[in-house]
Amino acid sequence: MKPTRCLLASALVLALAAAPAYAAEGGAKTAPPHAGFDLLKSLSGTWERKHEDGKVTKLTYAIVSDGTALMETMDAPGMHAAMVTMYHADGADLLMTHYCGSGNQPRMRCAKPAKDAKSLSFGFVDAANLATPDAGHMHDLVITFVDADHITQEWTWKQGDKEGKELFKFERKRA
Fold first, then answer.
1. Which of these, 131, 74, 72, lies nearest to 103 by C-alpha position?
2. Are strands 93-99 and 105-110 parallel, antiparallel or unpaired?
């Protein structure tokens, strides 16, 4: 190996070895704690909504990305593939992106809630793959923490000037 390549390889190895120590010593900046995100993390696990016909919608919450994001996966009867919603802090706010079965990806923002908040309200910011501003899309979401084993999600669908709301009640599934 030529001396220049050897020096370059050595420098790369040293830089990679130092990166974890740099982050551990506070070199990497992290977002401030967000009370809403802490509430969301408490949802980790599996939740179910039983329909009148006996079918079940399943929500699964998993903390991902070294604790900086929460992934919600929704499997509902009649869906070909699960929908995913990702939640994460964004400065003093909480941001979510909903990967919808309708083919678009709305983003919604939640202001920092009060310390004793029992619900999180997300409002529409923008959307990827939205054909026109009037195209149908999820526009708002309110998650209410009823108790440790019960939540509700109230989704607002908007198409043109029309809005429709639907409330879903979920119960934590115990092993």
1. 131
2. antiparallel
**Following DSSP, what letter does each residue of the chain receive, concatenated?**
--HHHHHHHHHHHHHHHHHHHHHHTT-S--PPP-HHHHHHHTT-EEEEEE-TTS-EEEEEEEEETTTTEEEEEEE-TT-SS-EEEEEEEETTEEEEEEE-TTS-EEEEEEPPPPTT-SEEEEEEEEEET-SSTTS-EEEEEEEEEEETTEEEEEEEEEETTEEEEEEEEEEEPP-
Whether pLDDT at 175 is above 90 = no
Instruction: Tell me the pLDDT tens digit for each residue of 17-68.
Output: 444 443 444 555 555 567 789 889 999 999 999 999 999 999 999 999 999 9
Percent of the chain with pLDDT over 70: 80
d(CA 71, CA 166): 21
Q: What distance in Å separates the CA atoms of residue 136 and residue 162, rounded to the nearest whole number? A: 9
Torsion sign, CA atoms 20, 24, 30, 36: positive
Q: What is the pTM of this model?
A: 0.80
